[in-house]
Amino acid sequence: MDEGFIDVKGVEKVFEVRKKAGFLKRERRQVRAVDSISFRVARGEMVGYIGPNGAGKSTTIKMLTGILTPSGGRLRVAGIDPSRERTRLAHRIGVVFGQRTTLWWDLPLIDSYKLMHRMYRIPDGRYRENLDRLVELLDLSELLDVPVRQLSLGQRMRGDIAAALLHDPEVLYLDEPTIGLDVISKAKVREFLRELNAERGTTVLLTTHDLQDIEQLCSRVMVIDHGRMMYDGPLAGLHEAGESERTLVVDLERELPPIEAPAPARVVRVEGPRQWLAFPASESAAPLVARIAAEYPLVDLSVREPDIEAVIAKMYVEQTEKTANAGNAGNAGKAVS
Ligand SMILES: Nc1ncnc2c1ncn2[C@@H]1O[C@H](COP(=O)(O)OP(=O)(O)OP(=O)(O)O)[C@@H](O)[C@H]1O
């Protein structure tokens, strides 16, 4: 594996925005959407890129595709400077924006693929082979003659993913690929991405608000907030850093006193026969489930994932406190409030 297939060093993006400040006056303001971030992604890696709304994720992806030019820093994808050689790079990357489609709205799905065949100048044999494979893997055969506007969200998403892969890109950027999809469609998309990565070694950068996308697909996650990189490492480490908790929802046969769970798991809510137990997100639920199943009359149970925003908010508070404490420690004599 070569290091730094995607190579980002001290990259910044500052937007100039004009705001109305009175009848005729306009004030100029700068928005630092991406603030000196650095990371490397090796060829074949699948990395999650997450953060709250307005954190700078889309801006980063737009710089990686060459749509936006960085205000500072250095950026390379497959050795190419995206904003200088956008067209050359376009042949090596694929992009899927969950909230927008790259398909022609009024045309049958197959016509969009035919147009891409020509736009990307994909050799005929390769196009046929890729199309057949993608149609099979993404279950598209029944949909090829349907106009895109008549497709459901999940069908359209699968159609968009195929469109992004027809020209065999080495890198795939996915922006919220499972947003609004039902459980079955989400599972289909995730399974396809896993196979794509395993079979073709496609490098994937995935932006999502769904922690299960990351958990099921990525061994590494990067967290951005206010344009800054807050965390880069395994998902379990993120849970530890944010001390986040998952919730086990237990339905008992009847109303009972709070379940006696081994610490740090604990009951946080009881409503009739239903009880909610919080436990560290970095730990497996299996031992807790086994113990409850052995000792209590169980009807059903489910595990709820922590919310990304909550994990990041907690991490943010902790980092701020750590910085404040470090400052206070060096300031002997001052009271720590
Ligand atoms: N073209 C633009 N002009 C001015 N400001 C912009 C522009 N594009 C983005 N921004 C600002 O930059 C910041 C980062 O936006 P960005 O779209 O990258 O966030 P995001 O992490 O993708 O958010 P979301 O999850 O909501 O899509 C926000 O404050 C946004 O308002």
| Rg for CA atoms | 24 Å
Helix content: 25-40%
Number of helices: 10
Distance between the termini: 49 Å
Largest sheet descriptor: 6 strands, mixed
Overall shape: it is globular
**What is the CATH class of the largest domain?**
Alpha Beta
Main structural class: alpha/beta
Proportion of beta-strand residues: 25-35%
pLDDT averaged over residues: 87
- The fold-level CATH name of the largest domain is Rossmann fold
Question: Going by CATH, what is the homologous superfamily of the largest domain?
Answer: P-loop containing nucleotide triphosphate hydrolases
Question: Which CATH-level-2 architecture of the largest domain?
Answer: 3-Layer(aba) Sandwich
Q: Strand-and-helix sequence, N→C? A: EEEHEHEHHHEHEHEEHEEEHEH
Widest sheet: strand ordering: 5-6-7-3-8-9
Ligand list: adenosine-5'-triphosphate
DSSP strand count: 13
Q: How many domains make up the coordinates?
A: 2
Model regions low in confidence, pLDDT < 50 over at least 5 residues: 330-337
InterPro entries: AAA+_ATPase, ABC_transporter-like_ATP-bd, ABC_transporter_ATP-binding, P-loop_NTPase
Main location: membrane
Protein name: Methionine ABC transporter ATP-binding protein
Membrane topology: Peripheral membrane protein
Describe this structure in words.
Helix content is 34%, strand content 29%. It is α/β, with parallel strands linked by helices and 337 residues long. It has 2 domains: 6-239, Rossmann fold (3-Layer(aba) Sandwich); 245-305. It has a 6-stranded mixed beta sheet with strand order 5-6-7-3-8-9, sandwiched between helices. Strands 11-12-10-13 form a 4-stranded antiparallel beta sheet, covered by helices on one side. It has a 3-stranded antiparallel beta sheet with strand order 2-1-4. It is globular, with a radius of gyration of 24 Å. Bound molecules: adenosine-5'-triphosphate. Adenosine-5'-triphosphate binds at residues 15, 17, 31, 33, 51, 53-59.
